[in-house]
Design goal:
Order of helices and strands: EHEHEHEHEHHHHHHH
Radius of gyration: 17 Å
GO molecular function, one term: DNA binding
Helix content: 40-55%
GO biological process, one term: phosphorelay signal transduction system
CATH superfamily of the largest domain: Response regulator
Pfam families: GerE (PF00196), Response_reg (PF00072)
Keywords: DNA-binding, Phosphoprotein, Transcription, Transcription regulation
CATH topology of the largest domain: Rossmann fold
Number of domains: 2
Distance between the termini: 37 Å
Protein name: DNA-binding response regulator
Strand content: 5-15%
Number of strands: 5
Length: about 220
Amino acid sequence: MIRVVVVDDEPMVCAHLRTILGSAADIEVVAQAQDGAEAVEAVVRHRPRVVLMDLRMPGVDGLTAIERIAKLPEPPAVVALTTFDADTYVIRALRAGAAGFLVKSTPPEDLIGLVRVAADGHTVLSPEAAQRLVAMSADGRRRGDDARRKTDGLTERETDVLACLGEGLSNADIAARLHLAEATVKSYVSRMLVKLDCANRTQAGLLAHEAGLVKR
């Protein structure tokens, strides 16, 4: 069972998400919260695998909550919720440790599938969305230079794996493309996250875009 916490300051949004997710046999909404402080408390109390986090809330906002949750032992995957598909808040959320983002207008059947993707530890972010987010970043050129300096230290195979992360591929998909064992890919990803100082696969994927490793 995939345990989920829903966070939004609009009770109707929480109720809507709870109804959609509750229709899936393998998903359980274990709590909802209306600000970031409540969200952190709910995560500590209920130990969910996924958190759907609104970014703009009064009091403790979603960005602060994501940063706090990322510091917890074995943190859940936090997926940012936004009204827009390209938003400067989303960029900050991803760099704070979010596993991806969803627009609130995501169709119900897609929402359920994407929650499952997040629960499996994969990126909830399309390559097209990543490209838009990188393009709209105000300090994109500087970040591009920084990203290239970081990735210059990778081996050729590590660079190949990182580019695949930028495309949002799973370990199984990367293994098939690069003709590697899935366990080998997992090992590559774990080492790269440490080497590149990335909190998760999503941050590594964005870094791949910033370094120009993903074909457009």
